[in-house]
Amino acid sequence: MPKFAAGVVRFQRDVFPDKRELFAKLSTGQKPEALFITCSDSRIELGMLTQSQPGDLFVVRNAGNIVPPHSNTTGATTAAIEFAVTGLGIEHIVICGHTDCGAMKGAIAPEKLDAMPHVRDWLGYARAAVEIVDAIGDGLNDHDRMLMLLEQNVMLQLNHLKTHPAVAVAMARGKLTLHGWVYDIGEGEILALDDRDGSFSPVSKHYAAELAGYLDHPPHD
């Protein structure tokens, strides 16, 4: 804990004074642009990864970046999605998987999770992605099979997301856009889903038309 306590002290001493105006604004409310649903994995640091500021992202994290299909059973992920869309009026939702994902390794081999029954049950929400890879991934090496699973899981969770009434209504009104990403931790690359054909390509290519202005004139400069 001393490492984290020292980090708080450095934040208060070195960072907060320079950002006092931002935090004063944030102290009165939030207006995030996007809901980011990603894995709880400690290696994913969204502020660093997206170069975003406090207040930019509303974040949901869980094992496997999973979105349970909508049901009448209330859960933390369901409530957060509803609040983000209906209460905060967010315009974008990103579901972001990542390489070397322990949750997806567990989804492939649930028989190894007997000591973690809640984890095993939770990963049942990724079962369809596993079965798709089993059905169409013959002949792939282990690396490519895992990449296919990461991509299929992101697509599956996007489909689950569309069953949530708040999401369905916002999309029908043209107020909400969904995005699927896979983050390669070792390479620093993020692949984005093209929902027209199910392919993934680098963020720099997928969003090329929108990127130029932001790269030349970052909004927080």
Task: Provide a descriptive summary of the structure in words.
It is built from eleven helices and six strands. It has 221 residues and is of the alpha/beta class. It has two domains: 1-29, no CATH class; 31-216, Carbonic anhydrase (Beta-carbonic Anhydrase, Chain A, 3-Layer(aba) Sandwich). The chain has a six-stranded mixed beta sheet with strand order 2-1-3-4-5-6. A hairpin with a 4-residue loop joins strand 5 and strand 6 (199-202). Helix 4 (76-87) runs parallel beside helix 9. The longest helix has 20 residues, at 142-161. The relative contact order is 0.12. Its cofactor is Zn(2+).
How are the SSEs placed, and which strands pair?
Layout: H1 2-15, H2 20-26, E1 34-39, H3 46-50, E2 57-62, H4 76-87, E3 92-98, H5 102-108, H6 117-122, H7 127-136, H8 142-161, H9 165-172, E4 177-184, E5 189-194, E6 199-202, H10 203-206, H11 208-216
Parallel strand pairs: 1-2, 1-3, 3-4
Antiparallel strand pairs: 4-5, 5-6
Helix pairs in contact: 4-9, 7-8
Strand coverage percent: 15-25%
What radius of gyration results from the CA coordinates?
Answer: 19 Å
Number of helices: 11
Between the first and last Cα atoms, what is the distance in angstroms? 33 Å
| Order of helix and strand elements from N to C terminus | HHEHEHEHHHHHEEEHH
**Unreliable runs:** none
Name of the CATH homologous superfamily of the largest domain: Carbonic anhydrase
Structural class: alpha/beta
Major sheet summary line? 6 strands, mixed
- By CATH reckoning, the class of the largest domain would read Alpha Beta
* Secondary-structure arrangement, i.e. CATH architecture of the largest domain: 3-Layer(aba) Sandwich
CATH topology of the largest domain: Beta-carbonic Anhydrase, Chain A
